[in-house]
Amino acid sequence: MAVRDLNVLFLASEAVPFAKTGGLADVTGSLPGALKRLGVNVRLAIPFYRTIREAAFQTRAVLNDLHVPLGREILPCRILETETPDKVPVYLVDSPWFYDRPSIYGEGSQDYGDNMERFCYFSHAALAMSQRLSFRPDIIHCHDWQTGLVPALLKGPFRQMGASSVFTIHNVGYKGLFPEWRWDITGLPWEEFFHAEGVEYWGLISLLKSGIVYSDAVTTVSPTYAQEIQRPEYGMGMDGILRHRQVFLRGILNGADYRLWNPSSDPHILSHYGPEEMSGKKVCKEALLRELNLDGSMAERPLLAIISRLDNQKGFDLLLPILDALFAMDVGLVVLGSGDGHIQWLLQEAERRHSGRMRTHTGFDEPLAHRILAGADLFLNPSRYEPCGLTQIYALKYGTVPVVRGTGGLEDTVHPLDYGTGEGTGFKFYPYDGWAFFGALREAVAAYYNPPLWRRLQTNGMHTDYSWDRSAGDYLELYQSLKVAGK
Ligand code: ADP
Ligand code: GLC
Q1: pTM of the predicted model, to two decimals?
Q2: Residues 50, 176: one domain?
């Protein structure tokens, strides 16, 4: 079957450059472009959030009179069209009631109380839209719980569409759980779908489980995570169902969009550099120290960095207790993060104790993320679990040596330094233990003071290639196998 005959519709709750809270948006923003380059006829649909409305994207209305059933109501919907920088068409599902809000998922640390309605509406609207447009998807590729209803709808009320579904788990920790009395919102027949082999999860509705159970193929974002989530320690209560669907589950490693994340062309950094000419990195480090008002002496000491959601997933409970020991090694630390208020408070508290050497910048700041990647020496990812992780992949390209816990995509993308051969790209530890993390950091700091070794580590990392091309090929192969099987 010719690739160009393959119509694929991506459904996601966020995508770069339109709306982003984390790595999901990086993936859904660039994977469609990589598939397009392979010849796939791919399109994307996302909600039309306020941030998109207020930005200067060119849009045109393609459907003004769509009606979307939600529970007992039929709600109006408008579909606008725009495109990604790769010229992938993007449908924007417009409902001011649901999406014209300050944020994507919630405000403060509180999720919007009607997120079930907001994303079930999005799922129904995307399918209703697909029935009206001339673009008929062969495959609907859904991402995370927000679109987990779609595979079930395609096996139920939308069966006649004949589309197959792929469901990608970016994080099994977000199960999309809602009380059973809200079932009507799903639009699914109760007897057929609300049971232990279906959408039910311990008496609740789980939209993540819906995606896992009813899709024709399940993927997750690294090979190691695909194995881990089939075990109780990492499956977060979904391991049983994932083992059950084992033959339909595979891990495809995320890629990086090196057009956006590359120190040789990054518009956000003061001086460009590459593996052959590193002097720009020093300029970026000095600029970062000045910008964050850190002690100038840090220019000659290791500067450590974290860019992350402030969430238990990311290992802050390992970092915080070892901070005093860490600063005793005379290092600097920069944290850019947003999320959990308690983690933020603890970090700010630590900053007060180590002023001049530690800076916590709270909020979501994309340009600053680039400047930190370029200016820091070491990048820390002590995650409790990490489905893929993109920041360590970006850090490698910026010559910022990663220190990671060997889990999920961190295990797959960072290779420990081999002192014999000089191969390897970073430092790793395995037990979820602060002192194991400290041991890896101590080793990394010692390597920093050995310039030839350090330079070797940096260049090894900068030569790594996790561009999307290979992973996009894996997705294409999967789509083709589903289409051939007529699933
Ligand atoms: P996750 O999706 O679990 O948050 P990833 O490593 O896959 O983790 O992706 C995180 C993405 O979000 C990266 O592009 C990273 O640069 C970005 N990011 C995270 N926190 C912030 C922040 N506070 N400001 C700017 N960018 C951030
Ligand atoms: C999730 C995961 C992260 C992954 C990202 C993109 O947010 O936490 O590890 O890189 O999705 O797939």
Answers
A1: 0.97
A2: yes
